[in-house]
Amino acid sequence: MAEKKSDEKPKQIEFQWKGRDRQGTAQKGEIEAVSAEAATAALRQRGIIPAKVKKKPQPLFQKKEKIKIHDIVVMTRQLSTMIDAGLPLVEAFKLIARGSENGAMRKVIEQVAADIESGQPLQDALAAHPDVFDELYVNMIRAGEKGGILDTVLDRMATYLEKTEALRAKVKSAMFYPIAVIVVAALVTAVLMVFVIPKFEEIFAGFGTSLPAPTQFVIDLSRSFRSNWYWIFGGIIAAFFAFREAYRRSPKFHYQVDKYILKLPVFGNIALKASVARMTRTFATLSAAGVPMLEILDTVSRTAGNKVIQEAVENTQEAVSQGQRLSDPLEESGVFPPMVTQMIAIGEESGSLETMLAKIADFYESEVDAAVDGLTDLLEPIIMVVLGVVLGGLVISMYLPIFKMGQAIGG
C-alpha cells in the first residue's frame, strides 16, 4: 500500500466553544482546528479558559456566506477609528468581530485576531486570507505599520475600496443592460420558433397555395431550429466555456482579447478610462502611504485589469529602475491618453505626483460615469429598433399569407 504523504495538511473542523477570559468574563465563539484538543490549546493561547468545546453541527442545506467589498470597507473604517482612539489591535479586531453581521467575515476577523495574539505581524495575519485581503491591501498595511500611520492608511484604503467598487459597479451596469436585453430577445425568438410558428405552419398547410418568400424562409428557419436546437445551444455553451478557458490559460489570447476590447467603439473608451482611473487611484493611494515607487508599479501592474495596460506598466517599472522618469515610458507605450502622461510629468516636476494622480483618478471616474450614462441613452433606441425589426419581422412574415388571402377574397 502506498504511504500517505507526510506533508498533507489535516482537515480543519469548526468548533463552538464557551469559556472565560483572564478577567473571568464569560466568552463564547467559534474556532477552526484539526481536533477538539487542538481547539482547546489554541483557546488557551488566546487567554481563554474553555469550559466547553464541541463540533459545530452542520445544517443539511448550508448556504455559504460571501464576503463583499462593503464588509471589508466597514471593517477597515472601524479598525482605523479604533486604532486612532488608542485601542490595541487584538482588542479592536475582537470588538469588530462581535459586531460583524456577516458570519464569514466574522470568522476571518476572529482568525486574524488570534494570529496577532499569537505573535504574528498584522500584515502576515491578513496575508493568510488572500481571498479577502489582496496584495494591495497587505502592501498598504505594511507601509502603514512601517511609517507609524496605520490609522491614516486604513482610512485611505477604505476610501479607495469604496471608489473602485463604485467604478466597477458602474461599468458592470453598462454591460448588463444590453446583455440582458439580448438574452431576453433570444429567448422570445426561440419560443416563437418552437411553439408559435409551427401552429401557423399547420394553418398554412390547408391553404393549398405557395407561401410568400419571407413566410417560407421563417418556416424553414423554424424547422431547422427545432431539428438542431441542441446543437445550437450546445455550440453556444461550448464556445462560451472554450473562450473562458482560453482567456484564463493562454496569456497570448488574453492579451489579444484585451487589446481588441480597448479598440471597440464606445465600450473600448469606457474600458480604457476605467482602467486608467483604477491604476491612478491605486498609485495615489500607495504613494500616500509611502510605498517605494518600484513596489507601487509592481502592485499597479498586477491590479490593472487589462493585459495591455499591465504590459505598459511593467515596461515602465523596468525603465524607472534604470533611472528614467515615470512619465516618459508611459507616454512611449502609446496606451495612455496624452492628458494622463502630461499631468504625471507635471506632478514629477513640481513634486506633487500623488496629488496629480488623485486628480487624474477623479477626472476619469467622472468620465466613466458620464460615458456609461451616455451609452445607456444611446443603446436604448438602438436595442428597441433591433428588437422591432427581428420580432416584428417574424410576426409580419407569419401574417403575410393571411393578408394575401384577405386581398384575394376582397378582390
From TrEMBL:
InterPro entries: GspF/PilC, T2SS_GspF/T4SS_PilC_CS, T2SS_GspF_dom, T2SS_GspF_sf. Residues 1-29 are annotated as: Disordered. PROSITE patterns: T2SP_F. It is found in: Cell inner membrane. PANTHER family: GENERAL SECRETION PATHWAY PROTEIN, PROTEIN TRANSPORT PROTEIN HOFC HOMOLOG. Residues 76-198, 280-401 form the Type II secretion system protein GspF domain. The keyword Cell inner membrane applies. This is Type II secretion system F family protein. Residues 1-23 have a biased composition (Basic and acidic residues). The chain crosses the membrane at residues 176-197, 229-247, 382-402. The keyword Zinc does not apply. It is a multi-pass membrane protein. Belongs to the GSP F family. It holds the Pfam family T2SSF. Keywords: Cell inner membrane, Cell membrane, Membrane, Transmembrane, Transmembrane helix, Transport.
